[in-house]
Write a structure and sequence with these properties.
Layout lengths: L3 E2 L2 E6 L5 H10 L3 E4 L1 H9 L5 E2 H5 L14 H8 L5 H9 L7 E5 L3 H5 L6 H6 L4 H11 L5 E3 L5 H10 L3 E2 L1 H27 L27 E7 L9 E6 L11 E4 L5 H14 L6 E6 L2 E7 L3 H11 L1 H4 L2 E5 L2 E2 L1 H9 L4 E6 L1 E2 L1 H7 L6 E4 L9 E6 L2 E6 L11 E2 L7 H14 L7 E5 L2 E6 L5 H14 L8 E4 L7 H9 L3 E4 L6 H11 L2 E4 L8
């Protein structure tokens, strides 16, 4: 099918980025320009011949701009089927010329409601009506109309028109239509989320500052863009894809740039996220090694090399085939240390790599190397799919601080023990529940994860440390949740721990504290649990 020639275009945009250059490119190809309000003024001042929509329809803009493009001469020219003799005869009889290209983006609702003190009245007035109507009409009739909603498409469309004597291919128009329907769906979803998040009674005071919408609107609309289709899911018989939030949080794993290596798998991305979310919480140079969603080694040190060497010691067996994340620029010394240990790694993540490190890593063609901007922002909401529904929660943004700790035992922790306890608590936050983490000297010594019994997690962590040849005498322990009985304290004390950090809140706290006193342990409460399922 030959490309459809563009003869008349309607341009009406809120975001005017690049629209003048686009209009100039259209005009240079002999395309007649229709426009509205501010867009028409911009084009006219640049010397372009443009017809205002009111002059085109013979009907003035009215109701403070609420009605301007909602007219048969606009929508008839868009919606008429070019392959229908009846449609074409009808619009000809009414003097309605076809509109072949529509360039529209919508009122800035998101920017409006983001302003402090925004009123419901302001928000309502920034709900576009004519724009979405034109977008949907044009997208529905993609066979005869090109609908442009994204300024990023301006230059490619002009290039295609130049190559096709002013025409655009059917495939191009169909792609534009798909993008357009997505654009209006997300626009309406954004409005719905904001309005259904308002408290009851907000409609009675439209001119007053609207109350902050609930974090959890009554009807939740979500929008994500597919980044890639993955080879398979958690298992080879499952299909999978990776989607990115339309407004991704700064510094999230979704912002990765892959420097080299094989395609990322479903499990690679999930584990990379766990590693990155953990490592970016540390201020000191840090290294996190993840295996099957759990940290098997975490450490901080004066250098990334020192952090890597300490984290590797925790569990060198589990570190094989793991994911490694650093919170600073990785140099050649770190890469050499990994090579000396013959450390097989699936994914390596850092905010930057030196040129020497990149050259050395290039020899490992299968190793996936990711660069992610270092920012400590968290997703506003976390989601978990369940049968027929969706669990939604805010992010676990609690991190214990020394000033907020409550010492509940007779023995007081030393300054060094407090430092190690805070480190251990931060690691435990990223270990699957039930979680027990032995630490000392800025590194993990034993990690017990994902057990049904906290005592079993404690025993496993101790066994792991022994297998690695690490001394637990004088270590500290973090528990992601309270100890329901004293037996967990008995086990960790027997292993050699001298201080414990936990949230507290058990009905048997007094029994657990008494056990700590019996063993001469220091115990502090944080008041915040870190379940991770």
């Amino acid at each position: 099918m030959p490309a459809m020639k563009i003869r008349q275009a309607l341009l009406s945009v809120s975001d005017k980025t690049g629209v003048l250059e686009f209009a100039q490119g259209l005009a240079a190809r002999g395309v007649k320009l229709l426009s509205t309000g501010g867009t028409a003024k911009l084009l006219r001042e640049a010397g372009l011949a443009v017809t205002e929509i009111g002059d085109h329809t013979g009907f003035p803009e009215m109701l403070d701009g609420r009605v301007k493009t909602l007219h048969p001469k606009v929508h008839g020219g868009i919606l008429a089927r070019r392959d229908s003799p009846e449609h074409m005869a009808t619009i000809e009889a009414h003097g309605i010329p076809t509109i072949d290209l529509v360039c529209v983006n919508l009122y800035p609702f998101a920017a409006t409601v983001a302003k402090p003190g925004v009123t419901l009245e302001d928000a309502i007035e920034n709900i576009d009506i004519g724009g979405p109507a034109m977008v949907r009409s044009s997208a529905k009739n993609y066979a005869g109309v090109a609908i442009v909603t994204d300024p990023a498409d301006y230059a490619p469309l002009l290039a295609e028109m130049k190559a096709n004597d002013g025409g655009l291919a059917l495939a191009t128009r169909f792609d534009l239509a798909k993008k357009a329907f997505t654009h209006t769906a997300r626009y309406d979803g954004m409005i719905a989320n904001w309005l259904t998040g308002l408290a009851d009674g907000a409609e009675a005071k439209p001119a007053e500052a609207a109350p902050a919408p609930s974090t959890f609107p009554a009807r939740l609309q979500l929008a994500f863009d597919r980044v890639e289709t993955l080879r398979y899911g958690e298992n080879a018989h499952q299909h999978a894809a990776f989607y990115r939030d339309t407004h991704p949080v700064a510094g999230g794993i979704a912002a990765y740039a892959q420097l080299q290596g094989k395609e990322l798998s479903y499990n690679n991305i999930a584990d990379a996220d766990a590693a990155w979310e953990c490592v970016k919480t540390f201020d000191a140079p840090a290294c996190v090694i993840i295996k099957h969603a759990n940290p098997c080694g975490v450490a901080v040190d004066g250098t990334l090399l020192g952090a890597y060497e300490k984290s590797f010691k925790t569990d060198s067996t589990s570190a094989f085939g793991g994911i490694i994340a650093f919170n600073g620029e990785v140099g050649l010394n770190v890469v050499n240390a990994m090579n000396e240990r013959k450390h097989f790694v699936e994914v390596l993540i850092a905010p930057a790599f030196t040129a020497e490190a990149k050259a050395a890593l290039a020899a490992k063609q299968n190793l996936r190397v990711l660069v992610v901007p270092l920012a400590r922002d968290l997703n506003a909401l976390e989601f978990k799919r369940v049968g027929g529904g969706l669990l939604v929660q805010t992010a676990d943004d609690f991190t214990a601080r020394a000033a907020g700790l409550k010492v509940v035992t007779r023995k007081q922790p030393t300054a060094q023990q407090i430092e190690d306890l805070l480190f251990a608590e931060r690691v435990a936050k990223f270990v699957k529940s039930n979680a027990i983490v032995f630490c000392g000297g800025g590194m993990t010594l034993g990690v017990g994860a994902g057990q049904m019994s906290r005592v079993d997690s404690t025993k496993i962590a101790s066994i792991k440390a022994q297998a690695a040849g690490l001394e637990l005498k004088g270590s500290v322990v973090a528990s992601d949740a309270f100890f329901p009985f004293r037996d967990g304290v008995d086990v960790l004390a027997e292993a050699g721990a001298v201080a414990v950090i936990q949230p507290g809140g058990s009905m048997r706290d007094e029994e657990v504290i008494a056990a700590a006193d019996e063993h001469g342990l220091a115990m502090v409460f944080t008041g915040a649990r870190h379940f991770r399922h």
